[in-house]
Amino acid sequence: MSYVCKDKIILTFAPHINVLLTMEELLHYVWRHKMFPLQPLRTTSGLPVEVIDAGLPNANAGPDFFNAKLKIDGTLWVGNVEVHTRSSDWMRHGHDRDAAYDNVILHVVGDADCDVCRSTGEPLPQLVLPCPESVRLRYEELRGGEIFPPCYSIFDTLSRFTVHSWFSALQAERLEEKARLIADRLERFGQHWEDVFFITLARNFGFGLNGDAFEAWASSLPFRAVDKHRDNLFQVEAFFFGQAGLLDEPLTEPDDYYLRLCREFHYLQHKFTLPAPMSAARWRFLRLRPGNFPHVRLAQLAYLYHTQQSLFSRIMEAQTPDEVCCILTACTSPYWEEHFNFRKSSPRHEKRLGANALNLILINTVIPFLYAYGRHKADMLLCERASRFLEGLKAEDNSIIRQWSATGLPVHTAADSQAVLQLQRAYCEKRDCLRCRFGYEYLRAKEKK
User: What is the DSSP string of 307-329?
Assistant: First the structure.
């Protein structure tokens, strides 16, 4: 359901969600894709306008489109284009006093309610561009559909090239976003790649549910202090479990191992003046399988930290996913082969990371670091290795991937599944259909009918 309110369209879609869509967004889309009316375009003063190139969209400050090419009354103009709902928005936004807008060659509006000029006082040509009713209705249909994704009906008509090119762009977007997160962590931790790699690795050992808790825990670790005792697995475990707040649990009958860990951690606390441990309440256990309990994951991380010196450097040198898996295949100390927590023992079982867990760690930790480190070092071989790894790993298996696979899209590799996750989170969940290639194809398909 939808209705129009002056210059804004209110769209209702999916249960109880409203989206406020300004007419300006639709005008942007119409101009960008040259969905012009059949009659000749003319300025408000009657001069003919021919659009040779609509220009490049600008997502930052400044005019909306850069380097447009237009013919106005037979004269070729090259410059920028600004789009507004009404002409008066030019003054309301202060463009008439801003020299950065003096290179605008055309003001595109839905309603010309006044004349406008540049900061020099020179009049600016204006074009009234009506938003076609058919485009508006199709867009409401796209944004208002209760079936998800609403554009699924065109997927079987898309060429392999269209899907592949959009997926490639989405994969690059996702890698860039992850690289920015790594850069932010590096800024906070003094550009120490080894530390930040371990923090990111720890976050992904949380496998979603405990990701935030693992990152907070790893960020609180005094790495230089831990390094001094790295050759002693028991002391590494004391650091890890102590800082995680899991040595403060109220146990009715603590075993000898737990008591020894407590004594060791108290000694290390005093020796290094450690920061306060995080609260054990931050760890989540509901609906977790025992093998995913934080205790088990911390024991695996402790074993990995103890056995793999220069972990980050070794990972960056690995040439294949199999080599990485050999490095990251962590087990635990003997105690954790018979425990999932400190409360009671369990049947003896070696607790190694499974193939699916290793696949997720490769996708969410190793590959983003290969890409980020390659960008940092200007080493395209590392970036290419990141892409090669993605294309060689199997797709993730979760509800989002299964949902999209059911639409008929080819989701076979990790590169495909990462593209789908980016599509879901950066476009579909935000209903940003105007920037989506599938949304564009949907509108074009409808246009042809």
Answer: H-TTHHHHHHH--SHHHHHHHH-
